[in-house]
Amino acid sequence: MKKLISLSMIVLTGIILTTPAFAFGMFGGRGPGYWNGERYCNTPALRNLNLSAEQKTKIEALISENQKSTKPLRDKMFDKSLELRRLWSQTNPDRNKIYAAQKEVRALRDEMQDKRMAMRLEIRKILTQEQNEKLANSYWGRGPGFVPRGGMRGHGGHSRVVYCP
Question: pTM to 2 decimals?
């Protein structure tokens, strides 16, 4: 019995001591925006463009600015989505309130898409003609199970891009 208890304590101690290693994650603790030590623009499609250091700097500045400018929109969209969920969870949901909340969420989403599109067009201006042509031809094909957009596209997957155009 003593052997079982001491063995259990050793295993439990080992689990407790190794837990922080799993929390650190594969990105080195910096989050999924970083990949191979770079903040943005290190997606498969953009690696093939051979961006210059100046282009990367400009693109990263545009992306960073876009993220800062859309932060209030994202926060507002989160709040409105939560409000919409609460409306749906009522025993007798008010149809008009649900439609109004859904309309607000759609408007916020449209505004975010417009800002993203403007950013992508600005990024395209930074690229050379050759890089733009290469980027235009870098769309993914059919993915597993013929799912549009390549199916499940994880980190380092075969998506067209993650943050950039």
Answer: 0.60
